[in-house]
Amino acid sequence: MSSIKEYLTQDHSRCDGYFATMEENASKSLSDAKESYEEFAKATERHFQMEERVMFVEFETKTGMTEGPTAMMRHEHAQMRSLIKQMGEALEADNKDKFFGLSETLMILMQQHNMKEEQMLYTMAQQHLSAEAPRVVDMMESMIVE
Amino acid sequence: MQFNGLSLEQAPPISAPLRFYLSAPLFAILAGILMLLSDVSALQSRYSIDSIVITHTITIGFMSFVMLGSLTQMLPVLAGVKMYRVDLVTKISHIAMVLGTLFMIVGLKFEVALLNAFAMLLLGSGFLAMIVVIFMAIKKVKNFTPTVTGMSLSLVFALFSVLMGIFLLFSYIDPDASIYRNIVANTHSVWAIFGFAGILIVGVTFQVLPMFYVAPKFKDFYQKRVVLFISISLILWMITSLFFQSYAVAAKLWIVLFFASFAIVFLLKIKNRKRKVSDITLLYYKTSSIFLALGSLFWIGDEFYLSQHIVVTSIFIGGFILSIMIGMLYKIVPFLIWFHLNAMGYMNIPTMNEMIDKKLALIQFILFVGSLLGFIFSYYLEAYLSLFSMAFIISMVILQYNIITAVLIYKRVKKTKPDFDMSAFA
Fold it and tell me: How high does pLDDT run on average in chain B?
């Protein structure tokens, strides 16, 4: 059974892969990119929810830290959701410049965010939740996206 | 605490890196002007005052400024720690270093001992204040990644290079010290370039390249060891070149091997990236690794000619460092502006691509690379130096313009009212 850290870190690279495919399709034509955009958006939303509805909640319950790192991560999720939504709008409007401007911004924001999670928050989560790790991973795995 | 870097308000104020980024191209422009004003034959020797002055206008005024500015931003994100009083320290160090560099340029060029003394004081305190504060921050790091190791080792070399630099400036004030000048200058230059700049670039690339271009990660062994090997080879090189000169070439070969291998691995990673988009930064990254590979080979090949062509090596290696830095600036400046505006609650911010004019960035790139190749050309055909100096100056003026345009967008948006009140998150 993989640890919380491994599981979520792998999911980051899965989302990165979807991102790369989406961008590659978009560079050919925006109308071809709609499907891969949906895939990327769906995978990312699932990742956010696995954290927000499962892992963060467990972490907060265990440590009592509700205003700490998880609050900031939730805030960054909101920033990224907004960028992803705007990218969808740029796709609809067939505005390539706008789309790539937003995707570039999202990419850097996302990577900075992932790095903070992977290097700090996940490590902390793994320490605090080591006993419950298999259960937490199971819950994330079986979660249904709202 | 371990998660200091997690919160937005822990990010340094945008002015901390920007003040360094905004003054860097100005020094490069100044270096170009100095090239125009210098006697061409003097520039063919690395020991002439004109060469030393121009080199330091670039290495301190551009390279060190960009590195120190970037460290203020990278420490919270890559290492999860915050610098002590980052706003105040960067403000004071920046002013001290700007004045120190200017005093040094004038002091050395016109042999004004008093200005050299001021330069020693200002550059010494400016550099040391930054280095000490960054070390204090690194001491708090809990999770030592290869990138953090790279940063720390790079700073050790920075510290020694600065101390040697202070001594070298002193040798222009007190003639008694000048007998040691060339020996110290040798180690000073190699440690500053390959130790301070080289190791920092290698360490940061481990993390940044896979991140931003979804490129394959560097092998664990490579990440963990290469920076250490480079450091050992730099120390060995110093010891051999001081005491066992005939063995120095072996240590040099070792340094060259690691950097050349890094250049090749870097290019391969770029080639195998998942993110296929190409942008100005990537163009600069590719150029940078080619310059590094050529520079390393040239440096070792020049052994056969008793380092007669060291100036050409310097142009290649300088091209490697400048290229990677300019490429990074084109990405980091627009992002920081977006990031800070977004954190203040602005929603309608121009995207990163709208902040920097792509065509202008490309023209800047072509002029820059052209001027560097031109400098090598002019090393053998002096008459062309002023032409390529002009190209270099224009490329740096455009770089300055590109950065200022982005900063002006920041100022303009900041004058309007935010879309959301973000105080709830503070």
Answer: 90
